[in-house]
Design a protein that fits this description.
124 residues; 4 helices
């Protein structure tokens, strides 16, 4: 989603994610769990920082990943382990992702992942 500052893009995204989760939870015909996550990356200037923020959003407050000192492959593996633990469908909205410019390598690298897991990043 793209638009001027202050027009409500984040609020609309948060609302839509909440509605999606509620609709799926209340629909007996849906046999899969849906988890949504809104990660604000306003202060991340690299994909490495954005990936750390994503991992920390996926983890509990007492199991946070430190901001430095990780090999990229370790981060890729942590990302997939966290997503596997959630199970079902996980929809992640990366707010303010344009702050990292074209440096989206760590976010879109598929690397080794569990069978049946698919990922996509759409930049708009």
């Amino acid at each position: 989603m793209y638009g001027k500052t202050g027009v409500g893009k984040t609020a609309v995204t948060k609302y839509l994610l909440e509605v999606l989760e509620t609709e799926v939870d209340e629909d007996p015909s849906v046999d899969s769990e849906v988890t949504t996550l809104l990660v604000n990356r306003q202060y991340s200037t690299t994909s490495y920082q954005a990936l750390i923020a994503l991992l920390n959003a996926l983890r509990g407050p007492h199991d946070q990943v430190s901001a430095t000192g990780h090999a990229p492959q370790d981060l890729y593996n942590m990302r997939w382990r966290e997503l596997d633990q959630l199970g079902g469908t996980v929809l992640i909205a990366l707010d303010e992702i344009d702050a990292i410019g074209g440096d989206d390598g760590l976010l879109v690298r598929r690397g080794s992942r569990s069978p049946g897991v698919d990922a996509a990043l759409s930049r708009t």
